[in-house]
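Researcher: Go.
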Amino acid sequence: MAGVGRFRDRGAIAVLIWMAVWCVPYASGTGDSRSWAFNLSVIDEKNLPVPDATVELRLLEELVSTSSTDATGKVALTVKAPGTYSLKIQKKGYLPLQTALELSEANATRDVDVVLTSAAVGHESVEVKGEASNPVTETTSSPTTLDPTNARDTPSHPATLVDALPLVPGIVSGLDGSIRIAGFGEDHSALLVNSVDVTDPATGAFGLSVPIDSVQTIEVSEMPYLAEYGHFTAGVVAADTRRGGEKWTYSLNDPFPEFFIRSGHLEGVRNATPRFNASGPIIPHRLYFLEGAEYLLNKHEVLTLPFSESLTTSKAINSFTQFDAIVSANHLLTGSFHFAPHSQQYAGLDFFNPQPVTPNGTFHETTATLTDRLAIGGGLLRSTVAYRAVSSGTSPQGTADMVLIPTGNLGNYFGQESRRANRVEWIEEWTPRTVHFAGTHTFKFGSVLGHSQNAGHFYARPVLIEDATGHRIQFINFSGAGAFNLSDTEPAAFAEDHWTLNSHLAIDVGLRHEVQTITHTIRTAPRSGFAWTPDAGKTVIRGGVGVFYDSVPLDVYSFRSYPEQTITTYNSLGIPVGPPVRYLNLISQQEQSNFPFIHRSAKSGNFAPYSVAWNVGFERAMNRFLLFRLKYLQSQERDMITLQPEVIQNQGAFVLGASGWARTRQIEFTARIGSRSHRQLFVSYVRQYAYGDINDANSYLGTYPFPVVRENRTASLPSEIPNRFLLWGPFAFPRQILVIPHVEFRNGFPYQQTDVFQQYVASTFGPQPRFPRYFSLDLRVSKDIKVDAKHSVRLSGTVRNLTNHFNPLEVHSNIADPQYGGFFGSYDRRFTLDFDVLF
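Model: Structure:
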């Protein structure tokens, strides 16, 4: 019995031990078994997820947890006790973020939205989209991306954002220096800097854009079908500026000028483009600063004129300042200011318009923006307020009458204008949390409220037209003060959905609704696109279709206030042929068309230029060294603004209307060879057809108007490029040597013949007359020399038109000119040296 008792005692002890092991944790309190968690969602300024970001969580300087965000930018961090934690998030290419997070006893789980802002660091150049692990998760649009770092080292050595655009396959610089996208001028495209429209409210021109050193990314889209884009029928140039980084950096580029050297003698300064850049933290991890400033002096020589009379001079101060404040982990604030006064002396100087005939122009451009980004509810709210002002003045060299002659013009420029235009914009964009339903839906909603004004006056003096022998054949007199004061309000709203059905297919669907009060029109723009990848992302097929509208520049409506012309025509004996004819300035009224997406009020000037366009593209990443894209686009533009002489009820009139049209077809092949940003070649071929009405109203209503209002003609558009081959890219050699070639071969631009009255000659059945084929091989070689641990010197040499190919800039296009059809004015081989200081 004693043995039994001992067995019972031992069993009781075992039970007590077992109860102690399992019950002590509970007896010690429930706090040890509970857990707290932070659910982080990390996105960038465009509400795109930031994968592979390093996340560290500390408590009283002790590392509690470290992890990385997944492909969707999310990560969950578990902690053992409530308290105030220090969160640090880092990823290359972004500013590191530090903030405090607090968990309470009552709140066991906390959802945290974090916005990372990109830093001012170098980045890989990507010419063709489609390299993501799954391209369908991106937008279905496929813009061409241009790396400003590589662009500014090319032989063209661009100083501004706009100067770099001709490196894009479908963009060329016209004979007048303006940018042409898909065959159309600047007033048919949009230029966005940090999502803000920075075109001239009066003319639609791009103007003097921000310094290239201040730009982080450049994306060019021809007829993009995303509903967030408006005010264009040709293309969109969207640029984002750099941010200051965690360390202070400085650079001084091109500090020394370039000189004219003729016959071994120094003839003064040709160009001077010193550029200074500074960026860094004012308050580490909180407030960042960036400044890009440049002085631009360019004396352009016209080789067909005597040297003393061959220079046209442009001067500019171009400054861009930006502050970026990290208010909290989910709240960013950015303010910027662009200041750009510039001038042109002898604008448009050429053989046919010597210095006395040309005007001078002065301009003052200012843009101020304030952008607030707030991550909330798993989405991103972006609010922007922007102000842009453009003041300009145009003046002649003297008071003599302008004389137009087939062989070259005389006298002084006929016009004098002064104006001030401004635009105020309020932009709201909301991208909510991704919705999961039959795939994933990423919605984006936005609104834009813009108000513009344009006030000034235009004064004109008489113009004489003579034949090649000097006999007067026409006299144009102007009457009226030419004062104007216009205002316009442009509200717009859009909604779009990026619908990812699965890992292979995504669809974009969007709708944009906009109003331009000065045009008395209401416009609706439906758009849609798709992206399909049949494999693991190496092959992508994209396409889209949409409706697009131009924003009619305010200068168009200043026409009703322009001085009216009275024209007297003379015979060969100098005797008037009939009485003088006075031409009224009339703005027509468009009738309601069958196009269902435009509503017009029954008022004059109810214009709404629009295009219907579609495109399809094929992209293939053969390997990490070779990536290519094949893209086709087609556009039909209607209701383009035209100005032409008409007779209405036996009364002469210059009628501003919207009867113009154009068709564009373009096929584009682009390849990127090389995987490293400093060893890449970009090769492209563009085949383009651009045909339509060439009588653009901008020739009479632009910054430098031509006095003769011409009858409309249908022909190839002035910047059509039937064939263009382009090759450029950096290639790094040992010993810090960088070589960048630039090769361009294309058809010459078309030109239109004129007669003795300066009117367009009617089209014939022959081919469109063109300039000769253009070919240029340019080369830039640079070497960096280390001075000490913090300073380097970069020596660069550039040669332009290495083969000395004949690329004429001028043609005798008037059929009454004895030298009709002759080309001249080519620039020979040219060498330049540069000197940069890097801190």
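Model: The mean pLDDT is 87.
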